[in-house]
Amino acid sequence: MKVLVCISKTPDTTAKIAFQNDGKAFQADGVQFIMNPYDEWFALVRGLELTEAQGGTVTVINVGTADNDTIIRKALAIGAQDAVRINKEPESAWDVAHQLAAYIKSQSYDLILLGKETIDYNDSEVGAALAELLDLPFISYANKLDVSGTTATISREIEGGTEVMEASLPLVISCAQGLAQQRIPNMKGIMTSKTKPLAVIEPVATSSPSVIIRHELPPARKSVHLIAPEDTDELVRLLHEEAKVI
């Protein structure tokens, strides 16, 4: 089985967020970047588990500049056999999907996995767009995945229950919490990752249908207004005059 795992670079969840160029660009100076947790903990690890049990290889792919090589090497340290980096600063989910699709069309993978979303934009767009461009089935938010021969069985949580589906390989799956358990790279993995193949390829030309006008930070939270338990009149007044339904 040949598995391809799409990974992204995202700011650490503790990073202080700021923007520049009149809000059009993210201010990356001083920000610690990590591999997107949904890609790392669930997509990558489940791909490794499947190939370890059934045989095969896991390749990771990333759209980004040389600054992304650190997180790519981490994926190799966790267990991926090789990696591909498409040498471009991603402009949008649309751009990423087209770059990935252009490469994948020249290859042959049984399973394409990626996290359900990135923790920076939370837009969940790349998986569906990629599947459309490849003309492959797409199943989102999987929290259980098993493969038998050329058939995948996928489960995902829905309101009030669990949905179980079967689909023929190849297909694209976005991975949610519960699909696998995080793996920590060991020393052997870290050392061997330095010699594993990392191919760098040039991007294809794309034209995004959308442009970023600006980013805006959410308004600062207001301070908590404490009211004495016995002061019900003040509570009623505040509810009438100041409380807002969100």
Give the topology string: H per helix, E per strand.
EEEEEHEHEHEHEEEEEHEH
Characterize the overall form: globular
> Unreliable segments (pLDDT under 50, ≥5 consecutive)?
none
The CATH superfamily turns out to be HUPs
Structure overview:
This protein has one domain: 3-Layer(aba) Sandwich (Rossmann fold). The longest helix is centred in the N-terminal third of the chain and has 18 residues, at 37-54. The chain has helices at 37-54, 69-78, 93-104, 126-134, 187-193, 232-241; strands spanning 2-6, 9-11, 19-20, 25-26, 33-35, 57-64, 82-87, 111-115, 138-142, 144-148, 151-158, 161-168, 171-175, 198-201. With 246 residues, it is an alpha/beta fold. The strands form 4 sheets. The protein has a 7-stranded parallel beta sheet with strand order 9-13-8-1-6-7-14, with helices on both faces. A 3-stranded antiparallel beta sheet has the order 10-11-12, with no helix packed on it. Helix 3 (93-104) runs parallel beside helix 4 (126-134).
Key terms:
246 residues; Rossmann fold; alpha/beta; 6 helices; three-stranded antiparallel β-sheet; globular; single chain
